[in-house]
UniProtKB/TrEMBL annotation, chains B, C:
The entry's keywords: ATP-binding, Hydrolase, Nucleotide-binding, Transport
Chain ranges of the ABC transporter domain: 19-240
UniProt EC number: 3.6.3.-
Organism domain of life: Bacteria
GO molecular function, one term: hydrolase activity
Database matches in PROSITE patterns: ABC_TRANSPORTER_1, ABC_TRANSPORTER_2
Broad class of enzyme this protein falls into: hydrolase
Stated name of the protein: Sulfonate transport system ATP-binding protein
Gene3D superfamilies, sorted: P-loop containing nucleotide triphosphate hydrolases (3.40.50.300)
Keyword Cytoplasm belongs to the record: no
Automatic annotation (TrEMBL), chains D, E:
Family: Belongs to the binding-protein-dependent transport system permease family.
Domain ABC transmembrane type-1: 59-239
Membrane topology: Multi-pass membrane protein
Localization per record: Cell membrane
Entry protein name: Sulfonate transport system permease protein
Origin: domain of life: Bacteria
InterPro entries with a match to the protein in the record: MetI-like, MetI-like_sf
Pfam families linked to this entry: BPD_transp_1 (PF00528)
Main location class: membrane
Keyword Cell membrane: yes
CDD domains for the chain: TM_PBP2
Keywords: Cell membrane, Membrane, Transmembrane, Transmembrane helix, Transport
Transmembrane feature ranges: 6-26, 38-57, 63-83, 103-119, 125-144, 188-208, 220-241
Amino acid sequence: GCGSSPNSDKTSGQNENGSSDKIIRMGYQKGNTINILKESGILEEKLKEKGYTVEWKEFVHGNAVVEGLVTKNIDFGHAADGAGIYAQAGNKPLVYVGADLPNPEGVGVLVHKDSGLTSIKDLKGKKIGVLQGGNHHYLAVLALEEAGISAEDVEWVYLNDAAQGRTAFETNKIDVLASYDPFLAGTEIDLETINLTEGKDYGYPNRTFYYTNEEFNQEHPELVELILAATDESDKWANENKPEVVKLVSKMLGIDEAIIAKAIERREYGVNKINEEIIAAQQKQADVYYELGLIPAKIDVAEYMPIN
Amino acid sequence: MGVPSLAERSTHQKKAVQILLQQIDKSFGDKTVLKNLNLEIESGEFVVIVGKSGSGKSTLLRLVAGLEEPTSGQITFNDQSIKDSKLSATMMYQDSRLLPWKTVINNVGLGLKGDWKEKAEKTLDLVGLYSFKDQWPSTLSGGQQQRVALARALVHKPSLLLLDEPLSALDALTRMDMQNLIEKLWLNQGFTALLVTHDVREAVKLADRIILIEDGDITLNIKNTVKRPRDFSDVMLAQMEKKILEKIMES
Amino acid sequence: MGVPSLAERSTHQKKAVQILLQQIDKSFGDKTVLKNLNLEIESGEFVVIVGKSGSGKSTLLRLVAGLEEPTSGQITFNDQSIKDSKLSATMMYQDSRLLPWKTVINNVGLGLKGDWKEKAEKTLDLVGLYSFKDQWPSTLSGGQQQRVALARALVHKPSLLLLDEPLSALDALTRMDMQNLIEKLWLNQGFTALLVTHDVREAVKLADRIILIEDGDITLNIKNTVKRPRDFSDVMLAQMEKKILEKIMES
Amino acid sequence: MNKKMVLKIIPWIIPIGTILIWQLIASNEWISTRLVPAPFTVLTSFYQLVMSGELFYHMEMSLTRALIGLLIGGGIGFILGIANGLSKFSYLFTDTSLQMIRNIPNLALMPLVIIWFGIDEGAKIFLVAIGVMFPIYINTLHGIKNIDAGFIEMGKMYGLKGWALFKEILLPGALPSIFVGLRYALGIMWITLIVAETIATSRGVGYLAMTAQQFMQSDIILITIILYAVFGKVADLIAQWGERKALRWHKSYIK
Amino acid sequence: MNKKMVLKIIPWIIPIGTILIWQLIASNEWISTRLVPAPFTVLTSFYQLVMSGELFYHMEMSLTRALIGLLIGGGIGFILGIANGLSKFSYLFTDTSLQMIRNIPNLALMPLVIIWFGIDEGAKIFLVAIGVMFPIYINTLHGIKNIDAGFIEMGKMYGLKGWALFKEILLPGALPSIFVGLRYALGIMWITLIVAETIATSRGVGYLAMTAQQFMQSDIILITIILYAVFGKVADLIAQWGERKALRWHKSYIK
Ligand SMILES: Nc1ncnc2c1ncn2[C@@H]1O[C@H](COP(=O)(O)OP(=O)(O)OP(=O)(O)O)[C@@H](O)[C@H]1O
Ligand SMILES: Nc1ncnc2c1ncn2[C@@H]1O[C@H](COP(=O)(O)OP(=O)(O)OP(=O)(O)O)[C@@H](O)[C@H]1O
Ligand SMILES: [Mg+2]
Ligand SMILES: [Mg+2]
């Protein structure tokens, strides 16, 4: 029952500042598709005729974006797949409104070339560094499972951010680093490594999602459509101008162009509507998270993923 | 210079205050310090309290100052309770209690209003420390600090001046000077004075009446009618000193 | 009881120390406190220093104690420099300097070893505060605190005892008691004593020699050969007191 | 008796009042309970955490880390405070550097800490230690510098030096100030721990808090907030008790 | 002259020595320069940050937040410290609650702060304010409680009460302790800001530090570390200067 629209002071206040002033608050993380959208100026242009202006809010990570949505501090945002699962498990109201195209090569499980480890089977009992609950964590679990190793048969080292993982990996404090782009690409380029999951996706599409808060989705479905369309448009442009995007993202993140190029080359930008296939993949992920104990209860992701 | 008699002064000085202590008891926890003490101090009188260390002299002064409540008994000023009578009393302590964060002149001016600076300067001059007025108290010697404290007490022209061994840190000469100064000011301003001292000589020099406290009670209460200004060489004073010392020794 | 003469004591007391101050100058910044001061103190002598407030008496004591360095000039003990002569000197101050975190007995025992407790208790008894031994200093009256400080200085059986107005906070009776006590202990233990006081009477009662400091120099240096034990009523003492007071007044 | 009761109750008016108001807000849904769960929900989760032994499991680890970090960091801060309070050279030599390090946020230090101390216990304890070091350092320094010079002079006069002077005069004289530092350090200790316990661990209250935040479990977040508050209060009570013991002589404690 | 020079140099031996050793390590690649860049690399990045105006852009914002937070939090802490130092009731009523709040880590408070204050400036300033409040509170309280009771008695005797008593005796008496609190608060201020500046912002030194950390820009991380150290030192110098001005009378400052 997420249809009821709460009538608290907070909400009406938000309405005054938000919708009635015709401001749309967009949450983004550095270097992701909404950031590219912001740089392109496409959204502002499209909204101008409708009398809306855009307020851009930068967040340091996806969970913060989701938190901003849940507390109705922003209307629309973009974050990873895990963030949506946690929000739902935490009974936080949220709506999935779209997904990026799959990017299975954007995650991987790395070992040092001179480590003697050559396949996933070798990882039994090893120290694997991950950000707990991240897409690469999920991938590593799937990979281990396929190799017949249970998640309990390795030593998970939960790290705080990608940089920590990289530092721990480089100084051999951990044996294995599961990572995601552009940090995956960065590690691959800077160090002599083997990506043990290269070329396999274990049925995991690694999509990221577009989320809105409940109210915004209910009151302004047309704006949601419009934002997704604008994003798709800027994505199309990005696909056609990858060298330019590389420059742009490299500058935004302060990461070498070579690394960003590698990350961007292996993905395709574009927005999908939510469909059954996407829901199924997300449901499987949620179930594994439950089994891993990352979320306290089973959830039905379809509740948060309306198809229209 | 003609010195006005006590009676004369009492009439032309409305400011001074008459004090009555009735059946005062004072204990700290289990320790009884004052026991059923009765004392009457006339308006404008100069009363000196002597007694051994720990006999309760400071406690008595603090009771009169209203800084402590008696355990039982009653203290009145001009027949009013301490709180009702808005008397202006000032006190000097064994330690100077100069505020270290104020210069000498600002210490003396503490609590004054209006032309405080002139008043403070004038009083500092009286105690011979005018030239130190802009120094920090911590740069003065102990004796100098105590003189500043005296200036601070006198600048208020109090109707009751309470003095808790204020001169014990002063040197012999300054001490005599200060005794004379206190006496002079007391004669001119006509406040009631209550002085605690260890120096029996000082007591007989200054007092209209000398009170000895022993075991929490008054064991000696002598009038001193020797004409002022008094001289240490006066035989009557010497006799009085001897009498008091003998009484103290006796116990 | 036969009192040993100074000469006698000097021979049977090897502990006491002879002090020589030669051409001592002492300044604080621009302020000259002592100027070209010369003083010889015999071994076992009791020297009392008097002078106005701020005249530099405490400074002189601190120089002798080695707590300050003279700006120029030289101080020797038994012809050795301060540092070489490992004399045991103790000092009593104007303020008691009792450590508030130690009980009375522990304050007295400070720096003692071995059977410190018995020694401390015995000395506390001498100053009449045995029954207070387990109290915190802050619960004592000012006078009581000062008596504890005296016990602390005496318990070390020092070869040089420096006393900076130690009695000014004591009451008349205790003060006389203490004067007698100090004299008795000095006679028995034979240490050299250097006492600063504002009380000229106290000076003439205790001193072998009285020194007046004015304007940074010694302006009076009188031997006092009156037999001990001395009595205040002694005419010679009274004359000496008068002479010193007059000299002080004069300037 | 009656008055004593009242004195015991007064400090708890605000905390208990807050909980009551919170329950009121939650019951009336003035704020969505999905954002801030009701006290009762929190209580239920708390009960489960306790019963499963999970809470104790995390707390045990955190307490161990906190204590070791406090001992090491507090010890170093104390020694530096003493040294810099006594030696002008030592003060000149180290104080500027210490003041500089003091201002570096733990979070920013993280990469260096991992390089130096790895990802195991060493790193966590180091962070706690460096966090508690400064309040102890500053207050010890302040305490030593503010001891009445007369006491030190007197002590030297009576033959105290070195250890004896320290034990009899410097330490007790600085103690009131050191206790202020200690009470402050105990607060810092928990705050640092939450950061420290994000490094490669799966045990500790900080880990519990961080994962709760990551996984948006608002009941667990609130439990950890309350846990920290209680930890803080308990640590403070212990410090106060120690203070009262050690400062019996102090005017605030003589009755 | 010569001695004065030496005294000026001594405090910088450790910081400069550290930089030299670090350059040595980097030049010899004892640790990968990707993890810890060489001082020279850092210097170059720093130069670029300054020249592009980016650094100033971030610093301006952080300074504004820091200052406003300090004023609000410091003000409240000061007032509470005074109130609880003077009124036993106020102390009983609020101290326990304050000690409890004090121990809640900023990080754990984050979700609640966002609910209460949103994600804009209010939230960031709130975090800074609550961070600096406690050192000021505790030290003001300590300062007030430790004023010689004789001074207060004397002041009352001379007719001081209310504001006058406060201004003439309580405040100056507590000031040395309050300055200790202030200096401590200035440290906390920066540390809190790094956390506060992770909330929905794209401006501020904390933001710079957090993104640098996330994207492994180790040169920028080091620049922010150094910035924090310098901020800390500068804040400390200002506080010291104020201290010297306000405490001219204090025995440590009379020359
Ligand atoms: N606040 C207090 N609490 C407990 N005991 C006290 C307090 N004030 C004074 N006393 C005790 O009361 C007694 C009398 O103290 P008081 O200070 O009045 O003596 P005094 O005659 O002034 O002594 P002195 O001449 O040494 O100043 C002492 O034994 C002292 O220990
Ligand atoms: N450390 C110091 N710095 C600056 N001036 C000082 C210092 N110590 C003493 N003086 C000054 O030296 C002079 C003599 O001080 P000293 O304390 O020796 O006097 P005193 O004769 O002992 O006075 P009193 O009888 O009041 O104790 C005073 O004017 C004092 O201000
Ligand atoms: Mg007294
Ligand atoms: Mg002196």
